[in-house]
Amino acid sequence: MRFSELMAREIRNKDSKMKKKTNSERTYYADGYRKRSASLCFRTSDFDEVLLVSSTGSPENWVVPGGGLEPEESAGDAAVRELKEEAGVIGRVGKHIGDFELEEGGKKKRTSVFCLLFEKELDEWLDKTESGRRRMWFNIKDALNELKKYKHSQSIYLEESLKTR
């Protein structure tokens, strides 16, 4: 099989694992950065455990729940929605940690990161049903190690949140 055929197959396989969003519209800031929001959901006010979800593209790896803002949606509201969709968890918005910019592969993203405090876990949720996504509570040290392995940029969110407790 030729290299181009292998790459096409790999892209198709990756796409088939990706979450299929309906009625979703990407939104952008005036400077071209995509609007995103992410949730660092802590189990207690001691901030000793944080929730991560399995990656849709690489299920053995763990990431911070987050995604794009819908039109007319605030970053805080998006953080709550993404947490519910991706992790099946209801959380209360706390502190805004900051806005983080990332440019890779010609794509520019600006992510507003919030601390959320855990309120409730749902038995069923959108991404569990659609893509088999899992959730897991990690102590802070283990969460940092997991994020540094796969999504180093997201480990910075967690490190920054610990500075501002």
Highlighted features:
single chain, globular, Nucleoside Triphosphate Pyrophosphohydrolase, 7 strands, three-stranded antiparallel β-sheet, disordered N terminus, four-stranded mixed β-sheet, alpha+beta, 165 residues, 5 helices
- The proportion of residues forming helix, as a percent range, comes to 25-40%
Rg of Cα set: 16 Å
What's the total number of strands?
A: 7
What topology, given as strand order, has the largest sheet? 4-1-6-5
Question: Sheet bearing the most strands, described?
Answer: 4 strands, mixed
* Individual helix count: 5
| Secondary-structure content class | alpha+beta
SSE arrangement, N to C = HEEEEHEEHEHH
Strand content: 25-35%
Low-pLDDT regions: 1-20
Number of domains: 1
Q: State the name of the first-level CATH class.
A: Alpha Beta
**CATH architecture level-2 label:** Alpha-Beta Complex
Q: Give the integer mean of the pLDDT values.
A: 88
CATH fold topology: Nucleoside Triphosphate Pyrophosphohydrolase
Shape field: globular
What is the CATH H-level superfamily?
Answer: Nucleoside Triphosphate Pyrophosphohydrolase
Distance between the termini: 54 Å
Produce the secondary structure layout.
Blueprint lengths: L2 H15 L16 E9 L6 E6 L7 E2 L2 E3 L6 H13 L1 E16 L2 E15 L4 H6 L3 E5 H11 L1 H12 L2
Brief summary:
With 165 residues, the protein is an alpha+beta fold.
Describe this protein's structure.
The protein is α+β, with helices and mostly antiparallel strands. The protein has a single domain, classed as Nucleoside Triphosphate Pyrophosphohydrolase (Alpha-Beta Complex). It has helices spanning 3-17, 75-87, 126-131, 140-150, 152-163, and strands at 34-42, 49-54, 62-63, 66-68, 89-104, 107-121, 135-139. It has a four-stranded mixed beta sheet with strand order 4-1-6-5, with helices on both faces.
